[in-house]
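FIELD: query
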Amino acid sequence: MAFTGRLRELMKKYGKVALGVHLSVSFASITGFYVAIKNNVDVESVFERVGLSSGQRRRNRTAELAASSGGALALAILCNKALFPVRVPITIALTPPIARFLARRNLLKNHRLLRLPDRPRSRPNLRLPSLPPPARPPAPPQAGAEKMIVCVAVVGHQNNPLYLQSFTEADDALKLHHIVHCSLDVVDERVNNPKKSGPTLNETFLGMLYPTENYKVYGYLTNTKVKFLMVTTDLDVKDADVRSFFRRFHAAYVDAVSNPFHVPGKKITSKAFAERVSGIVKSFGPVTTG
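FIELD: result
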């Protein structure tokens, strides 16, 4: 009864695998006994040596049953039945490793043996989508580039651009143009609200308009409402230096628009004016034209 109970527990735990192992052991046992009986091996003496006996064997009918192939098979089945106490431990010993082997080879599907912690499963090699590299922050101004002008602009009284030029090696011209555009809003606010602007509006020099982390924007307004803008990386620039720059910039503009071939209100395309402005910018501080 003890062997029967252990076999039932094995069947409940491993199911078809335990049943298959048990039948395979029985088939091997019957086949071995059949071959032995057909070769005139004294099976009864073998059982007596290992301490197994049964009432059926005491009848001493081995010779009669082995007289035919059918008798030999029947005797082999009886011998296999007598080996039940031996076959059960063999089945219990073989079933777990066979079940684990089948689970590793994915031959057992939808079976709880696949969840046994016999072998840790390797995680799938998931590849995340590549992310773009983070944007580099703008480089701070170098010590040798103080008083560096990175952009200048001339804007008409209707906020139409007449001249716009950047002076920098970096690919940040669009950013500088955006800074200039934002500064125009400050100029318009000061022009439309003279009370808030104070004495600044009484002068052509508007002072600092738009400070950022790395730049400062200064403005200059003529009597004809033409705006001059300058973007510099010198965060400690003096107003006197900026005033001097705008006076020279304004003078170059007056000479350019005094040209009889210049159409008022149109963009300034004169190469002589561009070269003169570049010279004024270079004299203000170290600069690299881009």
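FIELD: remark
Residues 103 and 109 are 8 Å apart (CA to CA).
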